[in-house]
Each structure stands twice: as structure tokens, then as C-alpha cells.
Recover the amino acids of this structure.
């Protein structure tokens, strides 16, 4: 894993309790078409909250975040 890491943890109860941190590698400088690997196997929740932390020595801007979800009957 590189030194450019984003750490993500999530809460299923609106921010009262959080999961363990998961580390995802960020693309290197100049790799504009590359994406970070998706965060998978988070489970189900009604009030889902994400918290992120970046360890990059450079400024990192999160340009877009996408959630793919299903509504069960």
C-alpha cells in the first residue's frame, strides 16, 4: 500500500457507533482516470454515516462519492 491512503469507517446508527477503519489506496499524482477501490460489505442500515480521514502528504479533495443501494420491501 502506498503512502497515499484514505481511511474510511461507517456507522449504521447515525454516528453513535462506528466500524473499524478500512484503508483504501489513492491513485498516484497524474493518474486522473484511476479510482479508489470501492468500499464493500458494509451491510444494511437506515441511517448510514461515513467518516473519512486522509494520510496523504498533499492536499486531497474528494470530488465525488457514489452510493449504490437497494430498497427492500
Amino acid at each position: 500500500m502506498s503512502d497515499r491512503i484514505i481511511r474510511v469507517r461507517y456507522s449504521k446508527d447515525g454516528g453513535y457507533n462506528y466500524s473499524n477503519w478500512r484503508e483504501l489506496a489513492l491513485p498516484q499524482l497524474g493518474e486522473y482516470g484511476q479510482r479508489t477501490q470501492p468500499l464493500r460489505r458494509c451491510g444494511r442500515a437506515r441511517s448510514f454515516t461515513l467518516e473519512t480521514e486522509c494520510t496523504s502528504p498533499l492536499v486531497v479533495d474528494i470530488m465525488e462519492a457514489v452510493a449504490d443501494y437497494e430498497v427492500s420491501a
